[in-house]
Specification:
The chain is an all-alpha fold and 292 residues long. It has helices at 2-21, 25-44, 51-74, 95-112, 117-120, 125-146, 156-182, 197-217, 224-252, 267-289; strands spanning 186-188, 192-196.
């Protein structure tokens, strides 16, 4: 399984790097829409409902993303990317606040599981709401991060996205090896039995090292006394994203959301942490030094 995962990752890495750095911003945003549509299809498998409602959910997600794309186009964002200082009062930028709040609520659900199982047996509507918000806000956040200083430095936003993925991947890799070799204390045994606190510690350490190395390489203007705490918070957010989707899969009796990535499962299985981290990463950049 590990060998298959490594082979798949190595094959996909050049495509991922090309997508992060080379398409113009407008094309980048457009390419992401079908990718997020695919994740919406995978999320629909967690709804425990009929095909008609699942199809409507996918169409709604694609429609919202298309509408956001249209708004950004009409506002001239792709020509002169700029996030206003009072972004929390501007639409669609203030959608980020909704996304942040949704992940706060998701953390509560993860902590309380399985005591809150009755919430998930009242129909697919709560899962539909979470999916719609989390997918659409993550799309917005990734597009905004990619737009960072794109006029002066066309590749800077790509490097920031790569830094975000280094934080997530570092946490995953560190947690896997630390948990496999030292894991004893279960983190959330009901939600994800294989995750341990020792794995969390290993993930945090490896993520900080990987992110600090890349941050130094790209010359990110952040002091370590700010950078390291932000990375720690983002690692915790990535764990929440992973556990929340794992909770939904456990509730739905789904092991993998699809099998399109050999050894990895589906896109949602690999990018669940990205959905949670992207909006927080963006807000951290805006708050720390106005990088965007």
């Amino acid at each position: 399984m590990l060998k298959q995962r490594i082979i798949t990752a190595l094959l996909l890495l050049p495509l991922a790097i090309a997508l992060l750095f080379y398409p113009p911003l407008q094309w980048f945003a457009a390419i992401l829409i079908p990718i997020f549509g695919l994740m919406a299809w995978e999320w629909s498998k967690l709804l425990e409902t009929n095909t008609a409602i699942r199809s409507v959910f996918i169409l709604i997600v694609l429609s919202v993303l298309g509408y956001f794309f249209y708004l950004l186009e009409t506002k001239g964002f792709f020509t002169a990317p700029h996030i206003p200082a009072d972004w929390f009062n501007k639409y669609p930028f203030k959608g980020l606040l909704v996304g942040l709040m949704s992940w706060g609520l998701a953390a509560v659900f993860v902590i309380l599981y399985p005591k809150n199982t009755k919430v998930w047996t009242t129909g697919p509507w709560l899962r539909i709401a979470f999916g719609l918000v989390m997918l659409s806000v993550a799309w917005l956040a990734v597009v905004f991060i990619r737009s960072a200083q794109i006029i002066e430095h066309p590749f800077y936003g790509g490097w920031l996205l790569l830094l975000m993925f280094f934080i997530i991947w570092g946490a995953d890799v560190g947690a896997y090896f630390a948990g496999k070799n030292f894991g004893k204390t279960k983190l959330a045994p009901v939600v994800s039995p294989n995750k341990t606190w020792e794995g969390v510690i290993g993930g945090v350490l490896f993520s900080v090292i990987a992110a600090s190395a890349l941050g130094f390489y790209i010359g990110l203007p952040l002091e370590l006394k700010y950078f390291i705490p932000v990375v720690l918070i983002l690692v915790l957010v990535s764990i929440i994203g992973d556990l929340f989707v794992s909770m939904l899969k456990r509730k739905s009796g789904v092991k993998d959301t699809s099998n399109i990535l050999p050894g990895h499962g589906g896109l949602l299985d690999r990018l669940d942490s990205t959905l949670s981290v992207a909006p927080f990463f963006l807000v951290a950049l805006l708050w720390l030094n106005g990088t965007l």
